[in-house]
Each structure stands twice: as C-alpha cells, then as structure tokens.
C-alpha cells in the first residue's frame, strides 16, 4: 500500500537559550509559495507545507475564515484512508461559497476543492464554521452548532442527525455555545446561554448513552467549559474566588467530586484537553509557560512542558492537543501551537511543538506562521491570530495566515515529530 512521504525538516532547540528569528517578509513568502498545493518551507525549517486555498476561492477577496481554534478540529479522522478531509469557512459575502470541503491526498500531496457543504439559500451557507469540528472517530462526521442544537452532519452524504437540543431540557429561550465532544462521541459539553440577553448561565453536559443532561450553574464571572477526550473530566473556567482572573473548576463526572485550581496557582487560560489531562498556559510563573495538569493526581501540581526567557512577546498563545491518545504514555505525546507578533522574540512567529512529559526544554520548530499583524488580510487582530489545530494523528497542523498581504489563506504543515522522540 502506498505510504505518505516521510516527514522532513524541522529542528530541535532549547526554548530558554534559543535565539529569535526575524519574521519573513511578504516578498520572501511569495518566492516559495505555489498558487495551491505542496511546497517546502525555506531554511532553516525545511518542512513540507500545503497551501489549501487561494484567491480564486474568494474571487480575489478576503473570504477565508480563520481556523476556529486549537481544539476545534478542521480535519477528519483519515487514519485508514489515503485522503484527508478538510473543512473551511469561505465567507459568501466576500466571494466564497460558505463552509466548504477540501480533500488532501496524503500520497500525492494534491489538494482538491470538493465544493460547498450546503446549497445556496440555506442558513448554514451563511455561517463561518466557527465552533464546528470533525469527530475524532467518525471519518465523515462534522459537528455543527445550530443555535440550541448540536448536529452531526455527514460531509459526504449530506445527511444530518441531531445529537441534542438544549430546549428539551432547559426550555425555550436558551441556546448553546462553544460545544466540545469526547473522542468516542458519547459525551458532549457546552455553555448554556439565555437567548434574551446572551447571558452565560453555566455549563451543560450531555450523555448520549443515557440521553441525559447534567448542568453546572455558574459560580462567578464565567468564561467557558470543555469536556476532556475521555468524556469523564469537565473543566469550567470562571472566577469563583473573586480574585485575579479565571479559576478552573475540575469536575470528575464519574464520582461527582470537584476541585478548584485557582488562577494564581496556575489555572489554565488558553488550554486544550487530553485523556484526564489539561495542557494550559500559566501566566503567573515563567515567561510564556505551558504546564500539564493530571486530573488523576491527588494534588494539582502542574509540570512545566514549555517556557522561554522572553516576557516581551507571546510564544505560543494557543496550543493544540487534538492528537491526544489513551494508549500512549504522556511522555511520548506532544502538543503544537503558534502565535503571531509584531515583535522579534523566540518562537513569536512560528509553529512549534513540545513533549508533554515535562523535564525538558526541547522544542520542535516546525514552520513560520507567515502572518503580519499589521497587514489587512484576515480582519481584526483576533481573526488574524494563527489559532491552528492538529489532526488526530498529530502529523498535520492546519492554520490560517495573511502572508503579509490583504487576504488570508489556509495551510497545512507536516509535523516531523520523530525529531522529538529521537
């Protein structure tokens, strides 16, 4: 059976002693980018990239919506297939076709635009695709947030299945926000909101096996919640202490026990979940620190998995652990992230990865993000930020970038993770 090309390029460096690299200029970027398809990033990176979209997909306009976030997966479970499915939002008010499906052949490295997921005139055609995500298990299933409903949409057959509707439990006048699902598709979480004033009411969890809900009312200034990949652990981010910023309520749904990780003790701001673990930014300790928190540990003592020596610029500020596995030691797993900055600082404009076992400052530098925060492409500063996510295998990282110009496009890079495990 044909195999994908081997991962190439990338390099390991110590995050504390590394030297900053300058951001690539627009002219440098245009010199190596194809109009669509595979290419190799220039030295010192040497990794294999894929350009997914181009100006033809937008009629020359700036229509490619930002990749939603580090934990909402834009790529499908392609483990047993030669092709990977990719969904992106192409704003139909700016020359695009709404949520659109692409196909990437892992063997030939060819990208094919399959087409829009929804016909003209439907409400979904007008949506950006933010908060939508592929199932970690079902190859064709895309989770779609539809106001009060979470819908599983088959991107090939175009059939839909309603997973749950919050109004059946909480009544009309409510909707859900920022949904998440366990990797086995059996447990789902979301913020419950009131329609009349958009107020956050708390976090709800839905169990498909029993078709039942559990609700956790907010206790303070509320941010968000997320179920872990196993479906057992729930993290709610809110300021329950009345001090500083968001704390983390960590709830074991199996036993009902709850612990609180306070902001000043390392509570996660930006974060992603694995199986019973959370990879989270800690802005109280070391510069640009990320820590791993094991919920099965009797004490909430997070281990450092990344930090550098530069407070002046973020690196990275969004990290994806969408490749989490239950059957692999945490010491052999890794997360990847990125950031863009107008400043020159270590890893301030790069895609990087790091192991989650702790005890090492080794960082895999994968690719330049190619984003200019001062350029117009991509919209406001939040939309410009390259909040990429990993696929289920951890071999591919997807993000959006303006390439220093007036429009944004989507890219994949092959992650040479073997360098982290040498």
Explain what the structure shows.
- The chain is mainly beta and 422 residues long.
- The protein is built from three helices and 29 strands.
- It has helices at 26-32, 167-170, 381-384; strands spanning 11-14, 37-40, 48-51, 83-90, 98-105, 111-116, 133-134, 141-146, 149-154, 160-165, 174-181, 187-194, 200-207, 212-217, 221-227, 233-239, 247-252, 258-261, 271-273, 277-282, 289-294, 303-306, 318-320, 334-338, 350-355, 362-368, 389-390, 396-401, 409-414.
- The strands form seven sheets. The chain has a five-stranded antiparallel sheet, with no helix packed on it.
- A hairpin with a 5-residue loop joins β9 and β10 (160-165).
- The longest helix is centred in the first third of the chain and has 7 residues, at 26-32.
- The two termini are 26 Å apart.
- The model has no long low-confidence stretch (mean pLDDT 95).
Summarize the structure.
This protein is mainly β. Helices cover 4% and strands 38% of the residues. The protein is globular, with a radius of gyration of 20 Å.
Main attributes of the structure:
422 residues, mainly beta, five-stranded antiparallel beta sheet, 3 helices, 29 strands
Question: What's the structural blueprint in terms of helices and strands?
Answer:
Elements: E1 11-14, H1 26-32, E2 37-40, E3 48-51, E4 83-90, E5 98-105, E6 111-116, E7 133-134, E8 141-146, E9 149-154, E10 160-165, H2 167-170, E11 174-181, E12 187-194, E13 200-207, E14 212-217, E15 221-227, E16 233-239, E17 247-252, E18 258-261, E19 271-273, E20 277-282, E21 289-294, E22 303-306, E23 318-320, E24 334-338, E25 350-355, E26 362-368, H3 381-384, E27 389-390, E28 396-401, E29 409-414
Antiparallel strand pairs: 1-26, 2-3, 3-29, 4-5, 5-6, 7-8, 8-9, 9-10, 11-12, 12-13, 13-14, 15-16, 16-17, 17-18, 19-20, 20-21, 21-22, 23-24, 24-25, 25-26, 27-28, 28-29
């Amino acid at each position: 059976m044909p195999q994908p090309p081997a991962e190439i390029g990338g390099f390991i460096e110590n995050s504390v002693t590394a030297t900053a690299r300058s951001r690539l200029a627009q002219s440098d970027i245009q010199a190596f980018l194809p109009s669509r398809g595979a290419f190799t990033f220039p030295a010192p990176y040497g990794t294999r990239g894929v350009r997914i979209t181009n100006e033809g997909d937008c009629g020359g306009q700036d229509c490619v919506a930002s990749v939603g976030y580090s934990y909402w997966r834009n790529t499908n479970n392609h483990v047993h297939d030669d092709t990977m499915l990719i969904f992106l939002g192409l704003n139909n008010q700016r020359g695009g076709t709404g949520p659109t499906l692409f196909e990437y052949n892992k063997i030939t490295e060819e990208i094919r635009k399959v087409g829009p997921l929804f016909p003209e005139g439907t409400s979904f055609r007008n949506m950006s695709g933010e908060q939508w995500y592929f199932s970690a298990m079902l190859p064709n299933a895309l989770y779609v947030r539809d106001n009060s409903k979470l819908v599983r949409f088959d991107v090939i057959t175009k059939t839909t299945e309603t997973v749950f509707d919050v109004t059946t439990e909480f009544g009309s006048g409510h909707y859900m926000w920022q949904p998440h699902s366990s990797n086995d598709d059996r447990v789902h979480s979301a913020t419950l909101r009131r329609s009349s004033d958009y107020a956050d009411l708390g976090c709800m969890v839905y169990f498909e096996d029993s078709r039942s809900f559990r609700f956790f009312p907010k206790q303070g200034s509320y941010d968000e919640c997320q179920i872990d990949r196993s479906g057992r652990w729930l993290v709610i981010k809110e300021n329950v202490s009345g001090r500083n910023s968001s704390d983390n309520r960590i709830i074991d749904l199996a036993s009902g026990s709850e612990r609180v990780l306070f902001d000043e003790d390392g509570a996660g701001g930006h974060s992603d979940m694995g199986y019973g673990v959370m990879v989270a930014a800690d802005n109280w300790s070391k510069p640009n620190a990320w820590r791993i928190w094991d919920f099965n540990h009797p004490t909430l003592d997070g281990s450092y998995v990344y930090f550098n020596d530069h407070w002046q610029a973020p690196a990275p500020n969004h990290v994806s652990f969408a490749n989490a596995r239950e059957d692999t030691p945490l010491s052999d797993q890794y997360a990847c992230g990125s950031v863009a900055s107008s400043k020159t600082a270590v890893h301030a404009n790069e895609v990087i990865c790091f192991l989650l076992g702790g005890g090492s400052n080794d960082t895999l530098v994968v690719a330049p993000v190619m984003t200019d925060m001062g350029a117009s492409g991509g919209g406001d500063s939040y939309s410009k930020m390259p909040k990429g996510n990993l696929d289920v295998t951890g071999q591919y990282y997807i993000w959006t970038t303006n390439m220093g110009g007036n429009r944004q496009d989507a890219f994949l890079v092959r992650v040479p993770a073997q360098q982290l495990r040498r």
